[in-house]
Design a protein that fits this description.
single chain; mainly alpha; globular
Amino acid sequence: MSLAWTIGRQVLLFVLYVSVYVLLLDNGSVVLFGLGWNFFYLGFLLFLPISTPVALQLALGFVLGFSIDIAHDTGGLHAAAAVLLAYLRPWVLRLLTPRDGYDAQDTVNIHQMGWQWFLVYLGVLVTLHHLAFFFLELGSLQHPLVTLSRVGVSVLYTAVVMLIVQLVLFPVRRGRG
């Protein structure tokens, strides 16, 4: 796979994730039980190739979050939480490293890494992102139970959507060769 193709694919995915989130999912009509928001755009950061340099992940996290902030006038909430996710991603990947390590071409893919690995990876990062986002949005710790319920429902909602994206859009790897 050439570098130009990889970069082009990532640019296209970036535009796709941001466009779907801004145009379709964040209009208020897809809020679950008045508590759960779907942060679909996180799929771009979560599914980056494992070998993506950390500095690039941080820059992409900022650009991604800032793009959402501009579209919704949220004053940096999405950028801050997305940069936190991008910062923590390498730590979580290291924590979940398989016994034989990662191959250079490994990606975050449920078919390749397995259900258990994927669910832990997704659960940890989405939960930390949502905790940061919702507590920053509130600006205090005044209503922790309401905020934690928003986090919990939103984590489940976002995780289910990310699972569907993985199962539908990411191909099954044919074997390690």
